[in-house]
Amino acid sequence: DQQVKQNSPSLSVQEGRISILNCDYTNSMFDYFLWYKKYPAEGPTFLISISSIKDKNEDGRFTVFLNKSAKHLSLHIVPSQPGDSAVYFCAATHGSSNTGKLIFGQGTTLQVKP
Amino acid sequence: DVKVTQSSRYLVKRTGEKVFLECVQDMDHENMFWYRQDPGLGLRLIYFSYDVKMKEKGDIPEGYSVSREKKERFSLILESASTNQTSMYLCASTGQFPYEQYFGPGTRLTVT
Description:
Chain A is an all-beta fold. Chain A has no helices and eleven strands. In chain A, strand 4 (32-38) and strand 5 (45-51) form a beta hairpin. In chain B, strand 9 (87-94) and strand 10 (102-103) form a beta hairpin. Chain B starts with a strand and ends with a strand.
């Protein structure tokens, strides 16, 4: 049972344009969502997060949008840069969990072309 | 600066060997995790631990075991390595909610 899904395995965009990465979830108990970025041969690094009490969170070029009714979140990168080329994972959790467990999506590989 | 370290970046082992992967965190985190990452399959949770000597199975525990004798250290053990355990292994730790996990650099394990 895949509770967090990233249905696009890959995405290719031109430098300077917007990248939009999508993520869907099924568990309505999730109340906190995170995005991680992973370069080859490195561990994932935290990028941005959003609480379920918000519908938008912005950090520089990165914005995450949350649509609770649709159980959908998206990560917008504007403008996209070649250094953004990486695998992006979305993850979800809920505050009633006391184990720190995150549920990860399968990842989307973003390629930003110069 | 938070830090999660893993004992090896690259490891090559033979089928049937016992393999130890060690992870150390310096953030006094209660929770630690072992994942493997394979193309198209994302991050799959093998085992996690929410306290010293406590462990729980993740989604794919078969063929693996873990040990957590000290809070800062979490070891993954492959009792008898097989070629289908060739993968990137990632360790992570986290404290309290909202559970932002900090990852180590990963160990690329090849079993021949």
